[in-house]
Amino acid sequence: MNKPKMATEKGVPSNSRVMMLLGQLERMNGESMLRDVEMARQVTTKILHVIQTQEKSGKEVMSKGSSGMEVILASLEVSSHPGRRVGVFVSKGGTGVLFQILVNASKEFPPSEELMLQLHSLLAKVGPKDRKFGMKARLSGALNVTINLMKRNLLNTKLLLPCLQVLRVYATSSVNAISLGKNGVVELMFKVIAPYSKKNTSLLKVALDALGALLKSKTNARRAVDGNFVPVLLNLYLDWHRNDARHRYMLIRKGLLVCLKNITNIKVGRKAFFEANGMRILYNSSTECLPVRTLDPLVNTSSLIMRKCFPKNRLPLPTIKSAFHFQLPHVPADGPVAQLYSQLPGVDDVVDESDDNEEPEADSDTENDEDEKDNCSLNDDIETDINKLHPKRSIGRSFEELKFYKKFFSELFEDFQVTSLSSSSTRVARPIALPAASSQKQISPNSQEDFNFVKRLHTQQSPSTPASTTTAPQTPIDLDSIHINKDEDKKEDAKFPSPDGQTISATFCRSPEQELIHPLECVSLEDKGNLRAEVGSERVKQEGSPVNNTRHIQSPLLLGGIPTRRDESGEGAVLEVPDTAQLLPLHDPDLYVEMVKETFSVPRYAEVAYPDYFGHVAPTSKEPLLERLYGVQRSKIFQDIERLIHPNDILDKVVYDLDIPRVVPLKYCFSCPFESGNLRKAVQVRKYEYDLVLNADINSNHYHQWFYFEVSGMRVGTTYRFNIINCEKSNSQFNYGMQVLMYSVQEAISGRPCWVRAGTDICYYKNHFARSSIAAGGQKGKSYYTLTFSITFSHKDDVCYFAYHYPYTYSSLKMHLSKLEDLRTPRIYLRQDVLCETLSGNSCPLLTITAMPESNSNDHICQFRNRPLIFLSARVHPGETNASWVMKGTLEFLMGSSPLAASLREAYIFKIVPMLNPDGVVNGNHRCSLSGEDLNRQWLNPNPELHPTIYHTKSLLQYLAYIQRAPLVFCDYHGHSRKKNVFMYGCSVKETVWQTNISASSSDLQEDLGYRTLPKILSQIAPAFSMGSSSFVVERSKESTARVVVWREIGVQRSYTMESTLCGCDQGKYKGLQIGTRELEEMGAQFCVALLRLKRLTGLRNHQNLLDLECDIIGTQSKAASSLTTYVMEEDEPSFLEAIDYSAESNDEDGEPENELCCEVQENFDLLSDSETTTGTS
């Protein structure tokens, strides 16, 4: 296209120049304009310049008969990049020119209708591209021009439509929306919208959009309520719903719902909606829309409105405080327990009628929005104080106080001259006396009777708690007399097919003779008033089976007095169960019962759960993440709303209540009278639906997440729905493929004693039970969340257990540690100490594991003493049971006979506290200890009386720092409820500064990059580990956690928290699978192998050799090793804090490890577990 000659000669009027330029622009049709964009831009720029400099030119463009506006509008519509030309127009000040023309044109009387039409049409296109559009309109006076024009032309649809389009843009500004409301625009809009009609549907759609934007303002929403417009909107929606049979006007119906949604953001709006029978109207209309998939936007929006307007209720509890109370030695005045019990009765669970907007929720059925944090606020938690970011070793205590802890490190001073090297294991069976420091409580180890007296004084139940008449045994069992020999030769086991067609190795067969005809209950610890169960086992050999081991349990109270098959002697009920000790070499049911008897609990549990008694064998089949069915959450929410619509269909029958114990058992039995159990109340809502309420952590009124309970008496083949209604977190992996755990006693008796992932129609969503601001940290308007799942029972007269994750009790730990002693050899140094006693009197074990010196020569003793220390801990949070399973894998690997395990013991001295919070684990807490506090937030200044395990664990580390033997690695095992995979959190100055805007010198950022070595090794050898999910940023909110305190005060550079998912993996060979105990134990073993690699890396002094060996070991083909200035561990950018992203792809490779060491660890892990692992191989 030739460049047009522009009229620039003298004497040519400027208005003629404008018309000539408009003519040129008009001749540039759509295609030519796209081909010569620059020419079109030059022409429009000159038109704008002439209009801005000559007022007459603007009037001529807008005059009657002129096609100038049509030409400009057409040029704006033609663009390969929508909005680009409009953006240029806005950047050149075009919006202000249009507003100026509009205001000037409005002064004419009467104003030109055509001019107003063209101006508003153009403004409607320009407005969305101008961020200051609303402010410019308000300051120029154009806002009032549009309002007055609308009031005078309500029946002129041709002019009203562009005015409404501009009004829709005006209302996006909150200031404009309030101003428009004061000028009566809200009332004006209700004159525009009309009942069902096929005429002017485009006008109605724009009007509803504008009204919806206006009603986002709370002031306008109140104005709509005061004007009694809520019933009007409901009637209009119902009219359009009934008449729009072919669903052609769905956008109009959606517009009406959006208006209702914005009005119901305020309390008076919700009240008006409820009083106008809005719940029933939307429920009925939505139910009719459900079969039509294209109407899902209407159904979802209706669902959001109904959920907001559902009347807020209290939980069906007398108090949200825990059903149990533990009297503390002293209650700090400013502590959480003092605040909890200083509240007057009845005010701890007040429904807060907040007028705030609800948290934003997506109009979809697939996910709940994470409303706790967004990306903008995450930076607020990052530590910005450079002085705090640099670890400064500060022990803070005198050596006189710390020298007491020397007794826990006898391996550092023992000369092995007197004691034979074959004496490789010692145990401290009784609690030790604590140092008599001014801030410490003196515990006397002299009298068990005295201790029980103290316990009885300190352990009291609330008035609503059922009293127990039993007491713990006074004489502990002699665990040293128990010996279980692990079969090192792996004898050939019997084989039998599993349901999935695979062959399972076992040492027993199912006895077909035994059938239970009555509901089972827990194994009772009571017998004639004593906590004593006569448990016997008998081995019966049958023809055709190499080994058939069964265990006969007999006790008059075993089945709760229900008649069952008795043995010939008639001494009591007999239950024939498999001898699971043959499947699980490190599990002994009899020993477990004895350990339970020595465990002190606040509820004084008198029973043992079958899963803990039988044990758990990892299932042989893979358990994939549950696929989310479309519409499952919506259907569950509608069932909840039905309770309000059809109240007569609701039974509301309490079938289990921890606060009010029942003497006569009901047909459907719920209970949790065993260690780690948690269920407070069960209410039958419908025939096959139950609402379940969890108990808060003791001495607390929140932390509801962990559950573990039993169910019996359910019908076979019937689908039941269970709703846990007082969850607190705003999102959960239950929305992303995670299932609950179920354990069937009938399955265990049949030879499959294992926890399995179970449940369908699983979802997690906000419900209508209000959280008190007292329990929500002062935040008002918060709600609880519901975890719902459906389950079908397969066996008659079965007892089934449900748990949040694979249970691992404190008694299981004690049994496991006792069994580990049987694995020791003369070359293994194993010592078990009691670090301290907990508040309720349970012991906190401390393990020391290493290799014995080769001889008692000075060189070998010196090498023994100078081994680096590795300090490990776990289970500070009771609900994170996966941490104990990882620790189990670590301990078994360390005690194994493989060459890798032997090398690891020779390389390090391991100090391990396997359970930092025994009291919380025993009593079924999720987060806290009996002090009502999160122990992982007490590391800065732990109290020796209220936080004894943290106090003494930190003291051990302080002692090591004082004697210049700080650990090489500190790692605290945890579980994560809202992320997949296994990952680590560490501490780095540089990576923390990267996430902030603070200024720091190069000297401030200098640090050894060794903190990345261990997680990087794990990412290469452990299939469940994700380096991409790991983070090394230091946050303010985590400054009192073990990871940060040990890094900052003890000076341990490699201080980590290792988080294991409760759900599953989205990368590696376990991608798409839910995690099980086998994978968790494998992770613990892989952690050990990573430490062995770390030893090989840190043992080299030459930095370049370090790079070469690391590249060789990890198997990466990085080119960084050839560069002297690049460190291979620096290749990963730091993860951004703890952002929750369920769909993010991992940066790790899915390939298997390429070097022989990776293969060796897998082989040794298989050898380690023997028949247990063989049975549980996936």
Automatic annotation (TrEMBL):
Cofactor(s) for this UniProt protein: Zn(2+)
EC assignment: 3.4.17.24
GO molecular function, one term: zinc ion binding
UniProt entry keywords in alphabetical sequence: Carboxypeptidase, Cytoplasm, Hydrolase, Metal-binding, Metalloprotease, Mitochondrion, Nucleus, Protease, Zinc
Active-site annotation: E1059 (proton donor/acceptor)
Gene3D superfamilies: 2.60.40.3120, Leucine-rich Repeat Variant, Zn peptidases
Entries under InterPro entries matching the protein: ARM-like (IPR011989), ARM-type_fold (IPR016024), CBPC1/4 (IPR033852), Cytosolic_carboxypeptidase (IPR050821), Pepdidase_M14_N (IPR040626), Peptidase_M14 (IPR000834)
Transmembrane domains' residue ranges: none
Compositional bias of kind Acidic residues: 349-373
Pfam families given in the database record: Pepdidase_M14_N, Peptidase_M14, TPR_CCP1_N
Low complexity composition bias: residue spans: 459-476
Xref: SUPFAM superfamilies: ARM repeat, Zn-dependent exopeptidases
Alphabetical GO biological process terms: proteolysis
Similarity-based family: Belongs to the peptidase M14 family.
Listed name of the protein: Cytosolic carboxypeptidase 1
